[in-house]
Amino acid sequence: MMSFERNDSKKIGLGLTGFGVFFSFLGIIFFFDKGLLAMGNILFISGVALTIGLKSSAQFFMKRSNFKGTISFGIGFFLVVIGWPIMGMILEAYGFVVLFSGFWPTLAIFLQKIPILGWLFQQQFVRSVCSL
What we know:
One of its GO terms (biological process) is endoplasmic reticulum to Golgi vesicle-mediated transport. The protein is an all-alpha fold and about 130 residues long.
């Protein structure tokens, strides 16, 4: 049960992850601004590392089944930093989907339990699209 405990580093990690997503969103809104995208990437990766721990995050990214996602996310991160934000974000998005594909069913169950929004995700046409 220790892994579900919220200590200060996990709280900071969740905050950094949230800011990383926010800065990435702003970078996309402002026509792929490479500074905001790079800042969002750095905050997101450091937030994930603080939230789940350095050892766990290294094990997650280095798993054999996650190599394709890790490599494409890393190359996309590098492309954003050197100034090719559109290509970098395409590669990062692909890597993100591949890396976190195991979490999509958990996310779908979570979204179905949200009071008002959950009703929409419980409808048959949404469930059929999500199961593809």
